[in-house]
Amino acid sequence: MKKLLALVLTGVLGVSLLTACGSSSSASSASSAPAETASTESASAPAETESASGSALDKDTLVIGTNAAFPPFEYAGDDGTPAGFDIELINAIGEKLGKKVEVKDMEFDSLVASIGNKIDIAIAGMTVTEERQKMVDFSDPYYEAVQNVIVTKDSAIASADDLKNKKIGVQLGTTGDFIASDIEGSEVSQYNKAVDAVNDLINGRVDCVIVDANPAQEFVSQHTEELTALEGSQFGFETENYAIAMPKGDTALVEAVNQALKELKEDGTFDKLVAENITGE
Ligand code: ARG
């Protein structure tokens, strides 16, 4: 008698489970085979990252977005794939997390919007800003930076006032772009790569270029006869913090990345990467 009751109960439970599965996958025609429906559903969105449902940490491979036109943090290495401080740092972080890391080179301006769909993480010398924080979560900061103003050696530009009504070259969507656009009377030319702005400075199409200090120094070192990089403090620019950007709300990922970053600082790896990649440090 007990056995029979158990069987009946199992049956009822089974049916109600089937019903529940069937009704939750209302879009599917295969309501008689809920298990299959479930696998079809997950297979239909393989490229999606898991920010909505889970953590990117559940994946074996983390897809990393960068913009490899920002030396020494990221640039095209000898084999054309991204190399530089950020790339080495994210590889070291991936290793700590036991994840494979796949780096994608993208336009800087599309990185933030790609986090949580095309990519899991962006590392790109990216400054923490309030605007970006509305869309992504940042790791603890890992590098302090400031904008520089690159000018030709014969330029009279030397102070914030001198930047008014000037033609300013910037990389699109960067903090240099935001600063330039706020300057009174500025005529801002936005390039996909900062180096193209630098070339237009040499060609006389812009009066100066506003770009982060380390890349500014790298670009100027290619043209020491003609160009010089002026300190941002001279123009009243504030210091900025670079951090790693991740899907908003993926706290598990953010915590794991912060923990890895902390360990890399404690074990000396971080300082080693700075010494190997960043001149003047
Ligand atoms: N720090 C600046 C910003 O966040 C510029 C970063 C540009 N990075 C790059 N990989 N191109 O806006």
Q: Spans of 5+ residues with little confidence (pLDDT < 50)?
A: 1-51
Widest beta sheet: strand line-up: 11-10-12-9-13
* Largest beta-sheet characterization: 5 strands, mixed
Going by CATH, the architecture of the largest domain would be 3-Layer(aba) Sandwich
Which word captures the global form?
Answer: globular
The helix content, as a percent range, equals: 25-40%
What share of the residues does DSSP label as strand, in percent?
15-25%
Structural class: alpha/beta
Tally of domains: 2
Bound molecules: arginine
For the residues shown, what is the average pLDDT? 87
User: Could you name the CATH class of the largest domain?
Assistant: Alpha Beta
How many separate helices? 10
Care to describe what's here?
It is built from 10 helices and 15 strands. By secondary structure, the protein is an alpha/beta fold. The chain folds into 2 domains: 138 residues, D-Maltodextrin-Binding Protein, domain 2 (3-Layer(aba) Sandwich); 89 residues, D-Maltodextrin-Binding Protein, domain 2. The strands form 5 sheets. It has a 5-stranded mixed β-sheet with strand order 11-10-12-9-13, sandwiched between helices. Helix 6 links the parallel strand 10 and strand 11. 37% of the residues are buried. The N terminus is likely disordered. The structure holds arginine (ARG). The site of arginine has 14 residues, from strand 2.
